[in-house]
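Fig. S4 source data, part A: sequence.
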Amino acid sequence: MPYQNRRSAYTNFILIFVILKIGLNLLAISHFGFHRDELLHLALGEHLDWGYKEVPPFIALLAKVTTTIFGRSVFAARIFTTLCAGAIVWLVGLITVELGGKMFAITLACLSIIFAPAFVASDYLFQPVVFDQLWWVLCVWLIVRYINYHSVKYIYILGVVIGIGLLTKYTMGFFAVALLIGLLVTRQRKILWNRHVLAATVIALLIFLPNIIWQFQHHLPVITHMKALQKSQLDYIKPGDFISQQIAVNGVALFVWLVGFGFLLFSFKLRKYQFIAFAYILIFIFLLEMSGKNYYLFGAYPMLFAAGGYGFERWIKAKYLPLRVFVVMLFTLPNLFLFPLVLPVFPLNTTLAVFRFTDKHVSMFRFAARWEDHKVHPLTQDYADMLGWEEMVSKTARIYNSLSAEEKAHTIIITDNYGEAGAFSRFGPAYNLPEVVCLDSSFALWAPTTINPQTIIYVSDDCDVSDLTPIVGSTTLVTKVSDTLAREYGTGIFLMRGVKPAITPLYQQNLKQKLAK
């Protein structure tokens, strides 16, 4: 049967799984609050540029569009990510069809990614991760379509997608190279030898060029950021940890993508698409050597799920319908037990009860509540990063509003980290607070060039104010974040009066150091 006819026959069927994915995300979209990283990404949207210290500019542009069209709520911030998650499921279904899969293959592939903990946890927050996954999957679909139909439009669209992908997350560059090498070492290398591929490459580079220029203009902050990340986080990721995480992150759907990987490598029927397996191997080895975080590789699994669905469909014939139903249930439904641990589908109190039950009766899932400090907490670190932010801002506002109008005019708010600064950027306007000053992360890029305050409200996550104590007249710890479930629990809010002129050169020196990195 021609590919075009087969695809059109299953479009509505794939749409069922897209709706299911979007529906599950909607159950969780407004529970808890903004995540620490979401607050940063939304703040980037208030300062549009061609680059930032941590990420390329795509997420900032999307933040601006989100806030302008949908508003400033948690629900509004996660609309695009929810739609994007549905689009990934859609593409998994389409790739499955392109590989030759039918309804059973589509069902297994789509349900695998919908219920896999890796994608449940990463595809609802307003972060570049989910969009990065989308571009990876879209790249593979476009190459597969070109292989099946030989229409050059897919090559040119591929160039645009890679360019946008590079403006979303730099890992797209690693994946593009992995795909290129994967094609070179297989029989599909022939598709590379034409002028259209060269033209598409130029298109991708032209789209990415503004960010390249921005990086050089700002002393290549991406390199500094990666070095800092390597020192603070990546050095603690051991090769064995990375491998075990890749085995565990998709739960029982592991067996689906492993079968897909095997079929892509060894099946005669899928020999045209063998490059996908080689690309996975290459990007896996690269991230293993670079001590990459486990989610850096998530974008490589959707196509393996598609191939896995096809593989199981080849093994289990249609006449064995009960066995097909059993396989779908076996490799998808057990992951439902992990849902409350990775997606806030329940309100906070119910979620806490689930974690308490898990800690007491299902110790094998206790890892979900283990943070970077290697201790087990009442909630996951991601959940804890969604709590306490508005409390912090409202308590600061009470201090600020207790000052006289004259003192307010000479008062600034300083925070230690980007999460705190993001919280003030998001909630501060509602409390009529002045713009926050922060030299952490990209906030240093738009920090004022100089300050000369008489009063400072200082928000410190470690309550260490020793660097400012010598240059202020008095320091009072007024209050702290009291939400014991929040990762910012205990963050101190200090009122510092009688600030001396010595703060100006100290601030300018620190700002210069931050911008030079």
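Fig. S4 source data, part B ends here. Residues 108 and 321 are 13 Å apart (CA to CA).
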